[in-house]
Every structure is written in C-alpha cells, then in structure tokens.
C-alpha cells in the first residue's frame, strides 16, 4: 500500500483557552505552521467543532469557567465528525489523576505549562501525521468495507484476529436478472460502467439502512444486517432496505438509457438466522463475513426471485411481526436444503412510521397467437443447460408467455426460450405458473430479451410462411 499523499493545505488547529496571555503564546508558536481558530469558552469550541469544517486538532485548556476542558472533550467526542479529532490538553495540572481523567475523556496527549515551543510543535505534528494515516486507511478500506468494519479493524484491539462469534443476523442477496447475457453483448468498458453505476446506488442504500456489504459477486450483492453492529430489528431493516433498493431501479434504468445501456431488473432474497460472524481466512489474507446455513438459504431464495421481486423466508416474516404486506406465498424445494422453504412475496413494508410499497409484478395481458410458434425450452440449472423441451408458444404479452410443452415443467424453473429462426438471440424466463393437463401448459415471466418477444414471434412467422407463400413482405401476418 502506498503512503498517504501529501496534503498541500495547512492543517487547522483550534486553540481553546479563556486567558488572553495563553492564547497569545500559542498563536505566536503555531501561526507560521498552521491555520488557527480560537475559542475562549467550551461552548464556542463545541460550535466550531460541529460546523461543516471542523478543526484537524484541538489544543484545550483544562481550567475554564462554566465548562471545564474534561467536559468539553467528552462532548466533542459525541459529535459525529469529531470522534477521531485529536485533542491535546494544555494545562498546569501535574497530578496523575488529572491526566488519567483527560485520557478517559478522549484526549491523546498532554502539554504542560509553561509551553515549550519545540515540544508543542513536535507533539502537534506527530498527532496530525497519525490522524492523516488513520484517515488514509479509512478512505482506502472504506471503498471496500462498511464504516463499521473499518472501525472494527482500526479501533478494536485484536480486530484483525481470525475467529468469530455466533449471532443472529439477516442476510440479503441481490442479483440482476439476465446480466450474464447482457455481458455478452457489451464490451468490458461498458460492463464496468454499468456495474459501477448499479453498485454505487445499491451500496449507498444498504449502508444508509445499517447493512454491512460482505461481498460483490459480479452483479450480485451479499449484505448482512445485525453484525458487527447489533440491530434488534435486523430482519425488518433488511426487508425495508430491499424494497428501497427495488424502488431505486427505475431511476437507475433512466440513467442507463441516457448512457445507451440496456435496462435491468433485480431480484432480492432475504433469510434470517444464526451465523458465525468474524474474520475468516488465513494469516496473510482474511475477510470479515458470515458463515452458516443462513447464507446458503438466502442465496437459494434469491435464485427463485423475478425482476422487481423481494422474496423472504418464513423466519424473516415472523421476525417482522406484522410490519409487512405479502402478496403471495409458495413452497419450494431448494438444492441442499432438507426441508421445503416457504417463501413470501413482499408487497409493502412499514418501519419507523415510514411506508414503502412495490408496484405489482408486470404480468401483461396475454393475447392468443393466431398461429402457435414452435420453440425449444432449455431448462437451466446452476447456469448450465440440463434439458431441452420441445414446446409451442400459444399466447404472449409484453413480459409473459404461455406455452404448451412436450413434458411437464416445474414452477420457478429458469429457462431459455430458443426460437427456430435465423436469429440466435433467445429469451430468458422463469416458470411462474403451471397448469397440469394434456397440453402441459405453463406460464413464463420474461426476465431478459434483447430483440423483444414480439419481434421474435414476427420473425418466426415470417420465416415459416415465406417458404410456403409468395409473400415475404415485412408487413405479412398469417391468418388463423
């Protein structure tokens, strides 16, 4: 890691003392080296520290009328943007108990009166350098870890030790639908721009709701709620965050449209339970994360989602205690999970007098096709093709297809719809309903389509009927 870059601006030092003679001495010593601010009472000092431009270091007298230096230091450390500001006491007090009280209040050092210019300059310089290095570490690691984890690493003794503790958390998994196919169409620069824009928005939302981002897995996000900072309502905060994330997608898509990039949809799955949270890895490389079945189940739930959907487990629903509106529930058998999972589709969430609701999933009206279109449904499992099922599209809408299949399909299967045309672009979809019967009908929710379903349907009709008619005009439409 490179060293912190040199800061060309002068550091700002706040001098707090009620005696004009003491202020004059400190100003004479420091004015050539630092930008100075002066406060003659504790209340004024706290006002300066709470401003938009707090000082980089505070020199604080102990014996002042009204509010002594110890109390000023304690209150200063409660100001969010001054918790890490170095405070050095300048005092004539020599008792050890006074120094202990100062350090317990949050001070980093003492300078005794009468002030030696060389000692004052050296100590101020050292603490400003330590603070700059500390801030540099925060800035670097803060791009990859949440503020809570960075604080855990920097502030907690043994924060980098391997190990962990058992705690109850909620795990949020989010993933863009069809992004693998989108990645095949774009160059690396566009993919990075798209991912950065998406992850920037989602990171801000997750951190605002006190979530900890464990990992970015391509276009996937793994976040936890309830550790390292305990959250009594971690499940509800996770659901509220997930709905907020979904509501941010339309604005993100408008940005993508202006950038000439494809539109996206996101699915989110949440599960709550016990996990071991801590530093995991080796002595050379480690990460803070969760280990336990709760992570695996959250991943399985996310894989069942449609774009725009938030699915949660039964455990998460119970922890939310009536704060959610659910628009449907269903049971699934997930890979690696012995018991069936009951999944609940979140429609709205209430939390701290706030109410967020999701729009209904867009299942457009189906139009019966005048002539069915033959296709192959490629059954996808773990991102690989497991089976090809000959099928016919008998009805279609903007985001939904109804098909008759050569064999029954299972609900929530991921499929690729391959048209029998010269165009090799398929349509990705998820089975949302099945209708057992002789025709093995199923309804598919489209998760990604480049050309658009109606363009592919038209091309199928055109190629089929142009072989048997004299008409190959683009306006030709077969009659029933």
Name some characteristics of this structure:
alpha+beta; Rossmann fold; Alpha-Beta Plaits; Thrombin, subunit H; 3 domains; 12 helices; 32% helix; 33% strand; elongated; disordered C terminus
What is the terminal-to-terminal distance?
70 Å
Give average pLDDT, whole number.
Answer: 86
Report the structural category. Answer: alpha+beta
- Rg estimate, integer Å: 31 Å
How many domains make up the 3D coordinates?
A: 3
Low-confidence stretches: 1-6, 470-480
Percentage of residues assigned to helices: 25-40%
The CATH architecture of the largest domain is 2-Layer Sandwich
The CATH class of the largest domain is identified as: Alpha Beta
Count of extended strands: 20
Global shape: elongated
Strand content: 25-35%
**Major β-sheet, in short?**
9 strands, mixed
Q: How many helices in DSSP terms?
A: 12
**What's the CATH topology label of the largest domain?**
Alpha-Beta Plaits
